[in-house]
Amino acid sequence: MMKAFAPQRPRATTPALFAVLLLAPLAALAHEETGQAAGFVAGLGHPVSGLDHVLAMVAVGLWGAVLGAPPIWVLPVAFPLVMALGGLIGLLGIPLPGVEVGIAISAVVLGAMVLAEVRPPIWLAAVIVAFFAVFHGHAHGRELPEGTSALLYSLGFVVATGLLHAAGILLGTARRWAAGRQAVRVAGGGVALAGLFFLWRAIA
Amino acid sequence: MKPLAWLLFGAAALAATPAYAHLVETGFGAFYDGIAHVVLTPADLLAVLALALLAGQRGTSAARFALFALPLAWFGGGLIGAHWPAAGTLSPGTTLTFLLGGALVALDARIRDVGVALFAVAAGSLHGLVNGATMTPSGASGLALGGAITAVFVVMALVAAEVTALPAGWPRIAVRVGGSWIAAAGLLMLGWLARGG
After folding, report:
1. Does pLDDT of A39 surpass 50?
2. Cross-chain residue pair B8–A144, CB shorter than 8 Å
3. Where are chain B's structural domains?
């Protein structure tokens, strides 16, 4: 027959067990930097979770390929820094109006630049890219998942963004062929159209 | 609860030592714990990488200065930090070292050899101070500090030597992009620190 469960008084050994548990901090050898792997992976994954960000970042690389040297490397060097500045502004609690609209317009403008193969002076191209980078950083740079390393999340976020630029540059190398050049322009047009959709969604 | 049990309970509470909250334990001893500490502490590793990229970018002469200046300053800072626990509060400052280092790499800043060495001394001292102040309470010995600066030296030597040998063109641009990424992560980290995250 099954023994009936009844509340029991704590045994005399319970406090001793408690005491042993109190010594447990000796075994807590955890490093102060917690959630490192999770933070980096979350940061890597975050930029590719939003199509608007992905398309704009790839368009930066495509436009760099259209512009040729030196903008092809100036833009990917400048963008992460200014994007992080946007993130810093967001983290400091400074509001930026129309962030989603700004991101959508970035896709429209950058896509249109690729489509039309616009080649402004390098300083102007850098200013255009930097301007939109602030919006992307403000929107995406401050969404840290709980319990993850802020530094490695930030690093993962920046690296993923940089790799999206690299993907755009690599795709842009197709311009050396006539058909590839047209394909890059079509890709730019696609980014611009998607940007218009994002813009409509942001405003509506 | 019996009085004896309470007594035992109280004694245990008093006897409990602080948790080893900072130093990684590899199981191979203090020296390897020190190596693991640098490799697994992103702020330290990014600072060493930024310094190595900068030193390599500025050429062999600058790299030779920085190769010895950084670990020596790190060691000196560590010794001071071991006797100055308050130096642990300088931890947020370590973000500035890799932010600044990364920015200088991204800009391909024309810094003289002495400037690179001075930057290495400043960064090494600061990181060493924080390492010493945070590792010592966890029972880390001078051997752990030795492991830490060995890791710093090896990473610095390998990366700076590679960068020094890079040809002009895309490989050098990749170094600048790497610096830009490090600086960007530093900027975001400043925001997290300001936010208290």
Report:
1. yes
2. no
3. 27-195
